[in-house]
Amino acid sequence: MQINFVKSEVPDEGSLAIGVTENEELTGLLQELDKTSKGAVERALKASRFTGAKGQVVEILAPAGLDLDRLLVVGLGKAEDFKSERAESLGSQAVARLLTSGEKTVTLLLQLPKDVDEAEALARVAQGASLRGYRFDHYRTTQKKTDKPTLAKVNIGASDVAEAKKAWRAAEAVTKAVVFARDLVTEPPNVLYPEEFAKRARKLEDLGVDVEVLGEKEMAKLGMNAILGVGQGSERETQLLIMQWKGARDRNAQPVAFVGKGVTFDTGGISIKPAAGMDAMKYDMGGAAAVTGLMHALAGRKAKVNAIGICGLVENMPDGNAQRPGDVVKSMSGQTIEILNTDAEGRLVLADALWYCQNRFKPKFMVDLATLTGAIRIALGLDIAGLFSNNDELAARLLAAGKAEGEELWRMPMGERYDKLIDSPIADMKNIGGQFGGSITAAQFIQRFVNKLPWAHLDIAGTAWAEEARNSTPKGATGFGIRLLNRFVADHYEA
Ligand code: BES
Ligand code: MN
Ligand code: ZN
After folding, report:
1. pTM of the model
2. Ligand with smallest separation from the Cα of 267
3. Tens of pLDDT, residues 208-221
4. At what angle do helices 40-47 and 28-36 cross, to 10 degrees?
5. Ligand 3 centre from 268 Cα, in Å?
6. By CB neighbour count within 10 A (0-12 exposed, 13-18 middle, 19+ buried), where does 325 fall?
């Protein structure tokens, strides 16, 4: 799908979508179109009880008097609440309706309230359009004609085309990174195993990212027995992926760091999961995909920051060599862990990855992302990710960035009363905490591998995969976390 910015005017071919805020009567462009169509537009809007409220869309086919296949009117909510993020739905709604409709070209016109930065809003329109148009068709050998995408061109009207293009440049880099991450998450687990993930991450070298990959031998030398134990039952080699983007003026300035859980398939291991729905566990590398996507975004838009991305890549399988419930392993930190459930493997991956990260890079802070617990899905549902942190400022910044990007977080409690639930009778800790507060005891476990530095953990088990299309995300892999963290970096850590 091609995105163009054009002079703002009503086209004489294809379809037109207009974004409008809530209003009693027709204004501006809508009023003009209504005149040309001799009142047909107003009648259609009235007949569908359109007010311009957020989420409303009216689709008028072959509107009288206009050379258009369709006129879409998209409600953007109250003018006084309008922020540039609202604009995104003009792009996403139009593409959702038109992608496989037979239409080839759509023009998007945004009727903006006063005092809104047009370029920024239009970049969001473009981002909504491209992200909602995401498809993954690599493995289809046949497809019905009517299921194939037809929409090829999205023209976005601007009063200042050059400014809009400039704003899109940065947003486009982020959009490409989200697409890259969604592809990683969607790939089947027989194709995307740890070495293949690492190989694909090497593509980031083209953007100027330094990429290193450690294999099992090197990890064993470092004492990373927590993550290695998880991969012990797999034929595939466990990998540690280390990415560095040095975009700050001072290449030696203290970096920010992001760590991802990359379990390319989670069977549960010997504590095996039930058969129904196990295929979903291909997305148990969603945290690692988000971290890799974030590095892609930062490098793609040449962010003025030094950033580290580390991913623990491993497959959790049961076999004759697999780790057993009851095993005790010594992590890289020296702390010992009693493995009571081999399905609580994500925290074991993060334990060594976080320890390695803070010791080698001495970052300002670490943020980890992981599809860590089913319990966070029960607690928060599938639209909001859990935020756990030892630092109020870091937490507040992440919450704000999430709101602005439509990738919301909710802060969860932590503390001593939860921490003691993972004490083990025979080792320093056990890897499960019992029936209650499962997402919190998982976070407490991870925190034991973080020294004094500021740290936040995002449990994205509910948000990494969408059960149905919503806003700028089609059904499937979301890429959740990339936009949020990109903004978080842009707003606070670029010199
Ligand atoms: N990968 C799962 C968590 C998960 C569940 C992610 C559903 C996405 C959707 C994780 O490794 C896991 O199995 N967690 C266990 C922990 C339990 C054994 C303490 C869980 O949540 O049941
Ligand atoms: Mn598991
Ligand atoms: Zn898992």
Report:
1. 0.98
2. 2
3. 999 999 999 999 99
4. 110
5. 7
6. middle
